[in-house]
Amino acid sequence: MSLAVPTVGTVSHGQLRSGWQAHEVTRDESCAACSDKRGAVETHPFGADTAVYKVGGKMFALIPRSAEPPRVSLKCDPEWAEVLRNAYAAVQPGYHLNKKHWNTIVLDGSIPNDELEELIEHSYALIVESLPQRVRSSL
What is the number of structural domains in the chain? Predict the structure, then answer.
């Protein structure tokens, strides 16, 4: 898996280092991207306000419905998490989560759509890899 992220400085709100303006991914688009993953289930263990996406009974994404601006929390490889936090102001340590393994991403348009999709896929893949073989084979 490769990710092209800036290595110097931070990215300002809504603008990439190259000057390209990203479309702000909406909360609904993030929910749809999570729901589209094979075996993904939307749950609400923390109340109706937070959609928690699980695969094999384990969380891979949390999306609070009332957060403004919208945000999504995703599991992430610890080294990659640090790179992303240094590259994008919109990527912060996981809110109310293990900050080593989770990032909370503000959906402000500063992260390209394809990279956000890749981060959702990465979070999902980390969880799938941790599942027992019998569960993985059923997906």
Answer: 1
Q: Are 71 and 90 in contact (CB under 8 A)?
A: no
Q: How far is CA 110 from CA 76, 98, 125, in A?
A: 18, 24, 24
Decide if 15 is inside a domain. no
For 104, list phi and psi in degrees, rounded to 5.
Answer: -110, 125
DSSP code per residue over 40-94: -EEE-TT-TTEEEEEETTEEEEEEESS-SS-EEEEE--HHHHHHHHHHBTTEEEP
Please give the model's pTM, rounded to 2 decimal places.
0.81
The amino acid present at 126, given as its one-letter code, is L
Distance from C-alpha of 77 to C-alpha of 4, rounded to nearest angstrom: 16
Measure the CA–CA gap between 63 and 129, rounded to whole angstroms: 22
Domain that holds residue 93: 27-134
Contact call for residues 63 and 31 (beta carbons, < 8 A): yes
Tokens of 19: 């000057």
pLDDT surpassing 70 at residue 77: yes
17: pLDDT strictly greater than 70: no
